[in-house]
Design brief:
The structure is a single chain. With 305 residues, this protein is an alpha/beta fold. It has 9 helices and 13 strands. The strands form 4 sheets. It has a 7-stranded parallel β-sheet.
């Protein structure tokens, strides 16, 4: 039985990761402050990752799955606290690529600040740089938008709310902007493939091969609730994030390297169905934003299509 350490373990990606590897039969340790319920079957190391002290001393991990590294200090403090480990996998982000990148973006594309993601992207980039310096053989995964059960970010859940309440959907322009997703289950399976196979490549763009238009994505979200959306196109010069859950930014990752590890991924339709079934029973776990309030106050006079 392989022993792994998961940073976090109580919210969305880290929680799903802990649960996934427990189910797969791994000996799963998690490190967090114990302010939320823990996944059944894990061994808890109660600590902030910046003040671990000697709590990891004497423990060897076959793999460290660093899901919650957001800047250089996150990586530095954890590596300083670790005793010994074989593999280190960090979940980075496609936000490390500038918005001016040539599409599709490859792993060796230039890195730098992305104006849409700001400090989040530069923080991830700094974390990557420190990790590659301290652990040259570490693995780095760069996903687009991650979705799936346990998602506490108000993205697909926002559309589900609109569908369940029979609301019109206010679409950015004609809805042709494309989004790229990756199911959290596919992310975990990719990490497992890395742990088991230790591939020669160490940096991976990960995600669904095909992107999907906003209009089609919203339609699939409504279909999960047994509904059909009535669209209102928003062509006014309004910041998109005030009424929609994604930036006005279209990009595409080249995931051909990932496909050698994981030839098939969740279809977006099946993945959204998973999300909807989870959300119906866990609505209180999602941190909602006031998109609907903004729409009702500022956009309700627009004409329905």
């Amino acid at each position: 039985m392989k022993r792994i350490l998961v940073t976090g373990g109580t919210v969305f990606v880290s929680k799903f990761t802990a649960q996934y590897f427990v189910y797969k039969g791994y000996d799963v340790y998690v490190i967090n402050r114990n302010t939320r319920p823990q996944v059944k079957g894990v061994t808890l190391i109660e600590a902030d990752r910046h003040t671990i002290g000697d709590k990891l001393k004497g423990i060897h991990f076959d793999a460290v799955l660093d899901v919650t590294a957001y800047d250089a200090s996150d990586v530095l403090e954890l590596i300083k606290a670790l005793d010994s480990f074989d593999d280190y996998v960090m979940i980075s982000s496609s936000a490390v690529y500038p918005e001016t990148s040539s599409m599709p973006i490859k792993e060796d594309s230039p890195l730098g600040e992305n104006k849409f993601w700001g400090p989040y992207g530069t923080g991830k980039l700094e974390a990557e740089e420190v990790l590659r310096r301290l652990v040259p053989e570490a693995y780095i995964l760069r996903p687009p938008y991650i979705y799936g059960p346990m998602n506490s970010v108000y993205r697909e859940a926002f559309v589900f709310d609109c569908a369940m309440n029979d609301r019109k959907f206010y679409l950015p322009r004609d809805g042709s902007m494309k989004l790229q997703f990756f199911h959290v289950g596919d992310l975990c399976e990719t990490m497992e493939k890395i742990i088991e196979n230790r591939p020669s490549e160490h940096i991976y763009n990960v995600g669904n091969k095909e992107s999907i238009s906003v209009r089609d994505w919203v339609t699939l979200c409504y279909e999960c609730a047994g509904k059909t959306p009535e669209f209102v196109e928003v062509h006014k010069d309004i910041e998109q994030r005030k009424y929609f859950s994604f930036y006005d930014y279209e990009y595409s990752l080249d995931v051909s390297r990932q496909e050698l590890l994981l030839p098939s991924t969740f279809s977006i339709k099946d993945g959204l169905s998973d999300c909807y079934l989870w959300y119906k029973d866990n609505q209180g776990d999602v941190k909602k934003k006031p998109y609907i309030e903004y729409i009702d106050s500022h956009l309700s006079s627009l004409h329905q299509l």
